[in-house]
Design brief:
Layout: E1 9-10, E2 19-29, E3 35-45, E4 55-57, E5 62-68, E6 71-72, E7 76-77, E8 81-83, E9 91-99, E10 109-113, E11 116-120, E12 140-147, E13 152-155, E14 158-163, E15 166-175, E16 182-185, E17 188-195, E18 201-208, H1 217-234, E19 242-248, E20 255-256, E21 261-265, H2 278-293, E22 302-303, H3 309-327, H4 330-349, E23 361-362, H5 371-404, E24 408-409, H6 411-422, H7 431-434, E25 440-448, E26 451-459, E27 474-481, E28 487-496, E29 500-505, E30 513-515, E31 525-527, H8 532-541, H9 545-566, H10 572-583, H11 589-597, H12 601-610, H13 617-634, H14 639-642, H15 656-676, H16 679-687, H17 691-703, H18 708-718, H19 722-734, H20 738-748, H21 759-771, H22 773-776, H23 782-795, H24 799-805, H25 817-831, H26 838-848
Parallel strand pairs: 2-12, 18-19, 19-21, 22-24, 25-31
Antiparallel strand pairs: 1-23, 2-3, 3-9, 4-8, 5-6, 5-9, 7-8, 10-11, 12-15, 13-16, 14-15, 17-18, 20-21, 25-26, 26-29, 27-28, 27-30
Helix pairs in contact: 1-2, 2-3, 3-4, 3-5, 4-5, 4-9, 5-6, 8-9, 8-10, 9-13, 11-15, 13-15, 15-17, 16-17, 18-19, 19-20, 19-21, 23-24, 23-25, 24-26, 25-26
Bound molecules: (3S)-3,7-diaminoheptanoic acid and zinc ion.
(3S)-3,7-diaminoheptanoic acid binds near residues 123, 253, 256, 291 and 369.
Length: about 850
């Protein structure tokens, strides 16, 4: 059935559903194209609701029969649901529907992936399974019976009973329908147990297709670490007898936190040293933690409506970042998070897709699982924690769990616990949830008679639908250094609330050097023209690890921008400062790797845009090349010392220490390749006994155009491993010279192993194309055309992934007139397709404004 005409939903229109759901009983009779779903649901009038319309969501369902209190009824059915007169007292609704999992290529609702059945219900997929009030504020206990010839039949909660060809599950915790899950298939498990802080033994399983059982050990350890961490740091204990994770090959995102039955994209759980990189391991650990942490922040306490999405996502991202910081390196995690924020959230917040952390309207909620809701949402919580302090934060969270367990909440509920615990008025702070756009912070300084004054001014440029912006609460962490690099003022939190505001530091013997916005204490663009000498000084001496990295990054960015804009040569002061840092063996190799890698092409485009210039992708690419060549020459003597070879003698472990050394090795290899035309890379490729080394070597060989043998050898070795083949597809496009990236993507899309129905494979090729900055923005527009062609094709199958990937065009207005016209034409061509999905329609129309 075609999508109904797009309807806009508004936060301000919220009303509670007229009925409460007391109990849900579902029976699934599984069959690929004709699964029967029988529902028996006990409803009662909701005393808190005035509107008593009985409307159940339902899409793409074939209604076979419906009954109320055992008597057949004939509801009015539309493409989005049904309505029916109901008694003014508790009643039992029963329905039987038929659905077709096998032909469900949207991967939403109940679908099939490689012969197994699985579900994805968040945000509004449950309505493709049966008729139901599919909204997060309707919570109920569920009993599920699954009938099918599969050895493994799983659902939420605890197993209740099973027999030949059937199993029953009971979830005692009331939950919204978006957390429902079902899995059935020929699966094998890697199992373990976890004893909770109160002594309860929980059975743990990771379920995979036969052949993948050897790739579960790391994920299992990550799960156990997460369970312990949540007990120790947040006092949160697991609450069922069993916790299941299932790996699925076809999945629209990373993973899903269904109660007691997390469903994971196989790329986000399966790992082995031979097939996964250090970065894969770290990502898997973080995603397992994230989904597990949702058990409390998302599941036990959920969202009242989808506008409150950041309530669970921002908080859970914040929690998983804390976890990674605790078990790996806190400075490296903070730096990586800020790189990611600037790469994904800043462009979003400064372009046509800009929206508040809590949006006020949407057509398709799946389009709002964004970097703004997730990552800026987490930044907002980080700011709140800085403002109220660690103890205030801990007390507020304790109260949040105690007060709201079992409820569907709002941002108001969340902020209220902080107000109640600390006595603070958070009215102004709340603007972080409603005001979109990245604030710009400028600063001037003054020193006289031992008093140093910092004067800040904040300003947020207009964003779609929000012309006027009000001042935000900005926590600005500042430290002051003297000329020897000693801290004369330790990290101090300045709380800026006005549009312009001054802060004084007294009793200083001399003019200090400021280290501003330490730890990136607020998600803003700091417009500060610091002298190069000062940046070089901070690069050498800043006692705040984040700001030490930041000064190096700023020097690198400024040098590259001067190269792009004025044809300047690479900045010698930057190169000298960097060399000194690289020589310092006391410094964490991971930190040095981050310093050496430098800003990406996209980050430079963003920086140019923020400086009011038009980014030229070719010139950016050229500047990066020149910088890398220059670094390779000037660090020539240092490279052998930084190279990975011989550094790690222990067996491979994806821990922070070894990963850091390999990251530094990879950044070094990238420079070495410029000196030896790929000889060292080829050697590393031939000898590699883990994927991290193999892939970084392959990337260099591709980049330097010496890849023919290696690409084939890699294929021969790994063509039977789906996840490794995704890397093979992705790297050939991502690391390609910009002139060939588009042709490569086109050629790979006709490779027999290319499968557009598999989101991982589609993203491997076309996500990599969009990330190859100069390649995608090829002057003749071929990159835009190719991506648009494929997005149009994909939309008919998988609207969610299509809509998400459309954001590759979100920066269109910042390029030169010629590129703008071509990107706009590509967007208009997508928009003009008949039967375009609601998801993609909303995205392209927002981008076109
Ligand atoms: N909550 C899911 C995301 C669902 C996305 C729906 N389009 C995974 C997560 O954030 O943990
Ligand atoms: Zn999440």
């Amino acid at each position: 059935m075609k999508d109904a005409a797009p309807q806009t939903v508004y936060l301000s229109d919220y009303t509670p559903f007229g009925y409460v759901v007391e109990d849900v009983h579902l029976t699934f009779q599984l069959a690929p194209t004709s699964t029967r779903v029988l529902s028996r649901i006990r409803f009662a009038p909701n005393p808190d609701a005035t509107d008593k319309v009985f409307f159940l969501h339902g899409e793409e369902l074939n209604l076979i029969s419906a009954m109320i209190d055992g008597k057949p009824v004939e509801p009015v059915v539309t493409s989005v649901g049904l309505s029916c007169p109901v008694p003014e007292k508790p009643f039992v609704w029963e329905a039987e529907v038929e659905i077709s999992p096998e032909t469900n290529t949207a991967l939403e609702g109940l679908y099939m992936s490689n012969g197994m059945y699985c579900t994805q219900c968040e945000a509004e997929g449950f309505r493709k399974i049966t008729y139901y009030p599919d909204r997060p504020d309707v919570m109920s206990v569920f009993t599920v019976r699954i009938e099918g010839p599969h050895p493994v039949l799983l659902s939420n909660g605890n197993p209740r009973d099973s027999g030949d060809g059937w199993a029953e599950w009971r979830d005692p915790w009331p939950k919204p329908s978006y957390l429902f899950a079902l899995v059935a298939g020929d699966l094998v498990n890697h199992s373990d147990t976890f004893t909770t802080c109160s002594g309860t033994e929980v059975a743990l399983n990771i379920w995979v297709r036969p052949g993948n059982e050897g790739k579960c050990a790391f994920g299992m350890e990550a799960l156990k670490k997460s369970m312990r961490w949540d007990e120790e740091v947040y006092g949160r204990e697991y609450d069922l007898d069993i916790f299941n994770i299932v790996a699925v090959d076809d999945f629209n995102m990373g993973a899903m936190e269904n109660k007691g039955l997390n469903v994971f994209n196989s790329s986000a759980v399966l790992a082995s040293p031979e097939t996964s990189t250090d970065a894969n391991f770290e990502r898997i650990e973080a995603i397992i933690a994230h989904e597990y942490f949702h058990n409390w922040t998302g599941n036990r306490i959920t969202c009242r409506d989808w506008f409150q999405l950041c309530l669970k996502e921002g908080l859970t991202v914040f929690r998983d970042s804390q976890f990674t910081s605790d078990i790996r390196s806190a400075p490296v995690k903070r730096i990586s998070d800020v790189i990611d924020l600037r790469a994904r959230q800043f462009p979003e917040d400064q372009g046509p897709l800009s929206h508040p952390v809590r949006p006020e309207s949407f057509q398709e909620i799946n389009n709002f699982y964004t970097a703004t809701v997730y990552e800026k949402g987490a930044e907002v919580i980080g700011m709140l924690k800085r403002l109220v302090g660690d103890e205030g934060y801990a007390e507020a969270l304790e109260l949040y769990f105690a007060r709201h367990d079992g409820e569907a909440c709002t941002i108001e509920d969340w902020l209220k616990v902080f107000e109640d615990v600390t006595g603070r008025d958070l009215t102004q702070f709340k603007r972080w949830y409603s005001q979109s756009g990245t604030p710009r912070l400028s600063v001037t300084e003054d020193y006289a008679d031992g008093t140093y004054t910092l004067t800040f001014a904040q300003h947020t440029p207009p964003t779609p639908g929000q012309d006027e912006k009000l001042p935000q609460v900005l926590p600005i962490a500042v430290g002051l250094l003297n000329a020897n690099g000693d801290e004369v003022v330790k990290t101090t939190l300045l709380e800026m609330t006005q549009a312009e505001q001054s802060f004084e530091f007294t009793g200083l013997a001399s003019r200090p050097i400021p280290s501003l916005l330490r730890g990136f204490s607020a998600p803003v663009v700091l417009d500060r023209v610091a002298s190069k000498e000062e940046q070089v000084f901070l690069l050498a001496h800043d006692t705040d690890a984040f700001n030490r990295w930041e000064s190096g990054r700023t020097l690198a960015r400024n040098s590259l921008i001067a190269m792009v804009r004025d044809g300047a040569a690479p900045d010698q002061a930057y190169l000298d400062g960097l060399a000194a840092l690289l020589r310092d063996d006391e410094l964490d190799p991971a930190f040095r790797a981050l310093m050496l890698s430098g800003p990406s092409q996209a980050e430079l485009a963003q920086a140019l845009h923020e400086a009011g210039a038009t980014p030229d992708p070719d010139a950016i690419w050229q500047a990066k090349e020149t910088m890398a060549d220059t670094m390779a020459q000037s660090f020539r003597d240092l490279l052998p010392k930084l190279a990975y070879e011989g550094k790690v003698t222990e067996p491979y472990a994806p821990d922070a220490e070894q990963s850091g050394m390999r990251a530094l090795g990879a950044a070094t290899l990238a420079l070495q390749t410029r000196l030896d035309a790929g000889a060292a890379a080829q050697k590393q490729f031939d000898k590699a006994d883990n994927m991290t080394l193999q892939l970084s070597a392959l990337g260099q060989l591709i980049q330097v155009g010496k890849d023919t043998g290696a690409v084939q050898a890699f294929y021969d070795q790994w063509h039977n491993d789906r996840l490794v083949m995704d890397k093979w597809f992705g790297l050939q496009v991502g690391a390609a010279h910009p002139e060939v990236a588009v042709d490569r993507a086109a050629a790979l899309s006709s490779h027999p192993a290319f499968d557009m129905k598999n989101p991982n494979r589609f993203r491997a090729v076309f996500g990599a194309l969009a990330m190859n900055h100069a390649g995608f923005h090829r002057r003749d527009g071929a990159g835009y055309d190719l991506l648009a062609d494929w997005l149009i094709r994909l939309d008919a199958m998988n609207p969610q992934t299509t809509a998400r990937m459309c954001s590759a065009f979100q920066t269109w207005k910042r390029y030169d007139a010629d590129r703008q016209a071509k990107m706009k034409a590509a967007l208009e061509r997508i928009a003009a397709q008949p039967d375009l999905s609601r998801d993609t329609t909303e995205m392209v129309s927002r981008m076109l404004g």
